[in-house]
Each structure stands twice: as C-alpha cells, then as structure tokens.
Q: What sequence folds into this?
C-alpha cells in the first residue's frame, strides 16, 4: 500500500461512552505538511493535524466504525501516545491493553496518560510551541517532568500482580500572548493516577508525584525551597544528578524497603541573611533540605497506602 493511502496515527484517545467505548485517533494531514508552513492554533491555512472519533461496544467496533468512514487505511506504526479518560481508567485499562497487544504495529514503549475528565477534551488543547499535539505529551517523558509510564510497564505490572502509577493530565484555560484568542485550553500536569489490578483507584497530587519521581530515579532536576534556620526566610536550591537506590530487607518478621537517595544541590536564590560559607550554617540548611526531600518521598508512599495493595515501585522485589 502506498504511503499516500495511509493515515499515520500519532495519538490514541479512549473514553467511556453510552455505547461502551469511544475511540479518538489523531493523525497528521499530509496534504498540509508543507515545509516552512506555521502550524498550530489560529492559522488561516488550517491545522496540519486532525482527529476522528468512533464509538462501539468495544474498541474493535469503534475502530471499524472509524475505518469505514475514512478515505485512508489506518496505520498504528507511528503511535506514541495513548490517553485514557478518567471514567475509562476507573472502569479498567484491560480492554486497551488487549487491543494494543493484538495490534503488532503499536510499539510497547508507547506512553500512557490519564486525564482528570474526558480524554477527548485534549483535542481542543492549544498547540503553540510544538508541531503536533502529541509532541507536548512525549516531551513530558523526554524531560522527566512527569512519571514515565509505557504500555510495556503497565502490562508488566498487571502480569506480576503489582500496581502502577500513570501521569495525570488536565486542561486549564490560559491566555497566550502571541495568539488571537483571549484564552485557550492548555495541557498541564495534575499529578499521577494510581492503578491496582488494571483499574484507577486513586491519585497523587503534583508534589507527591514529584516524590514518586525521586523514588523511581526518573527526576532529572528539581527546585526546592526551605526555610532558613537563622531568620525563617526562604532559601531555594536546584537539585541535580539525582540517584536512588532501593534495597529490600528482611527483619522483624516482615519485609522492609530501604530507600537511599543522593543528589547535588546548589543555591539559586536566597532571601535570608544566612552565611552559607560557614560550615555549621551549611549543615543546618542541608538538614532542612534533607527533611524536605524525605517528606516528599514519604508523602508519595503513605498517602496511597490505604488505596492500593502495594506501590508499583516495589513490583520487582
């Protein structure tokens, strides 16, 4: 089949519907991919991407209904993002995993996301700094600004009976100075969705999600502000070169998990009069910084202990 007879799907969106499941597929419009043409929201030439939707009792029917009304043959070979609506996530991701598992062209490293509402609403999100909407989502994994979860990770967690955390997204209206519209929906991180046995059972807020990134060793850098021990004013640090080591131990008739985290920290701003060249003062600030990091990691674990059987990061142990 010729390339100009295919629709290359980049984004797959799944929601619950009255019929059962609603499938939305996002793909580039090759007839508008002209070199040098500006792409995004508000251009008179039109967007260089589009979405089509179809509903059915299951994903197979929804997919067939889309294909019947599309002039090109659908190809999943370039799919990099799968997004689940909250209702779909709470009902269970098993149908999506089943569909992906039986469609060989869909790569197992395709990234998985969940939204706080209807996933299809993401199709209205503003696209300003990137060429296609899915590039906004893949960047969150590339730059580790949210938990990185792939279809493979989710399948492994299901197989071993463990749990999984998936990045949670939401839309927020924002004013974008360079655009004509006063306000446009903007994709932002809302934390993480917690899954057990394939179903969403809870959430982590953004700070708890960042603590999860510490545990998983996925955090590339972080800004943390602590209170100065001398005058109570703020001292801000940039954290880099983060490393995490998880050690299971047996003791007192139970399994203990020991988390060791280390990183380099540098001061980026200070409202305090603290003398950071004084070794004693530096140790006091370091103690406050260690306490803040410890609290973030602890919150990421403890706030969900009643909702899930075991946190996904322990699944390999």
A:
């Amino acid at each position: 089949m010729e390339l100009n007879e295919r629709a290359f799907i980049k984004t797959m969106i799944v929601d619950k519907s009255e019929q059962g499941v609603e499938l939305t597929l996002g793909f580039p419009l090759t007839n508008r991919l002209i070199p040098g043409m500006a792409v995004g929201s508000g251009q008179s030439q039109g967007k260089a991407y589009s979405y089509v939707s179809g509903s059915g009792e299951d994903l197979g029917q929804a997919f067939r209904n889309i294909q019947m009304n599309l002039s090109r043959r659908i190809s999943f070979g370039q799919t990099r993002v799968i997004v689940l609506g909250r209702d779909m996530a709470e009902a269970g991701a098993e149908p999506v995993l089943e569909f992906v598992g039986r469609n060989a062209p869909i790569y197992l490293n395709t990234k998985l996301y969940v939204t706080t509402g209807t996933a299809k609403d993401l199709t209205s999100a503003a696209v300003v700094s990137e060429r296609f909407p899915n590039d906004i989502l893949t960047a969150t994994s590339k730059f580790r600004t949210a938990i990185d979860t792939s279809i493979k990770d989710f399948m492994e967690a299901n197989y071993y009976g463990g749990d999984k955390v998936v990045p949670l997204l939401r839309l927020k209206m924002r004013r974008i100075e360079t655009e004509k519209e006063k306000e446009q929906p903007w994709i932002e991180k809302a934390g993480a969705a917690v899954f057990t046995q394939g179903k969403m059972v809870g959430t982590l807020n953004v700070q708890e999600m960042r603590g999860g990134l510490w545990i998983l060793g996925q955090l590339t850098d972080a800004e943390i502000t602590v209170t100065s021990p001398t005058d109570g004013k703020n001292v801000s640090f940039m954290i880099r070169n983060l490393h995490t080591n998880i050690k299971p131990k047996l003791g007192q008739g139970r399994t203990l998990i020991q988390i060791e985290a280390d990183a380099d920290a540098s001061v980026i701003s200070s409202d305090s009069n603290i003398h950071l060249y004084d070794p004693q003062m530096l140790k006091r600030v370091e103690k406050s910084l260690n306490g803040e990091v410890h609290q973030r990691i602890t919150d990421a674990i403890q706030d969900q202990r009643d909702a899930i059987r075991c946190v996904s990061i322990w699944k390999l142990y």
Q: What stands out?
A: The chain is about 25% helix and 35% strand. Residues 170 and 220 are 23 Å apart (CA to CA).
